[in-house]
Amino acid sequence: MTDSADSPAMIDIVIPVYNESGNIISVLDSFHEHVKTPYRVLICYDMDEDDTLPAVKNYPRDKADILLVKNLGRGPNQAVISGLAAARAPAVLVHMADDDYNAPLIDPMHDMLMDGRDVVTGSRFVRGGCYRGAPWLKQALTRTASFSLYHLRGVPVHDCTNGFRMFSRRLLDTVEITSTEGFTFTFELLVKADRLGWRVGEIPATWIERTVGQSRFRVKEWVLPYFCWYKYALGTRWLGKGPETVVRKTAASGPMPEVTRIDDWEPAT
Length: 269
Description:
- It is a single chain.
- It is globular, with a radius of gyration of 18 Å.
- By secondary structure, it is an alpha/beta fold.
- The chain has helices spanning 24-34, 52-57, 75-86, 106-114, 136-153, 169-174, 184-196, 219-238, and strands at residues 11-16, 39-45, 66-70, 91-94, 119-123, 130-132, 165-168, 200-204, 206-208, 259-261.
- The strands form 2 sheets. It has an 8-stranded mixed beta sheet, sandwiched between helices. The chain has a two-stranded parallel ribbon with strand order 6-9.
- It has a single domain (11-264), classed as Alpha-Beta Complex (Spore Coat Polysaccharide Biosynthesis Protein SpsA, Chain A).
- The protein contains 8 helices and 10 strands.
- Helix content is 35%, strand content 17%.
């Protein structure tokens, strides 16, 4: 379902891409088949030559409303943050460009958000969840961090690092995102919402390591940035740090990304 003047988008789906022509059509088809809440898709890209763009240019207009968001920087972190800056819907979902299996969860996640939660995460580590195909080191680090935060800190989700996560407009308008590496922004927003005392929730989700294209997840390079937010989460309980320590957005807004409707995009010459 797409948005229109009579039915504005209730969910903006932010998808970072890097040459995802082999995946993106099946993802868009999964939205069209399963998502009934009015939504838009924000394709966030680094370069005009990205082969994802001509693929979505040819996608039927009656099946998805698509915006293209030019990355203000480089890499997946800045691509998503650019998408979050461009999003305007009450709910914003970060979604991976190779995930064509979790679309049936989007409406229930939106319902949970509208019920008063500010973060809803897809959890791989609860009954009904699934995490398949990831390298052993990535799995070990992810499972250990999530298990220990749930039990040591009491963060009320079992999966602290999953990028498949929906955020409220209130959270995105309140919290300053300071992460600069990888997908740490999603961990950051979760632990900041928790420190504010705002409600978070989870739903069983699936994660299957990609089979088309190359993963942009860099375990060794991103361990330290993730660990910084791990310590932040522990500090909420063990150091008594409260809502006053959460960095808030200021009145001065930063640069806005270039946003193009798919009908207006033309291939780079």
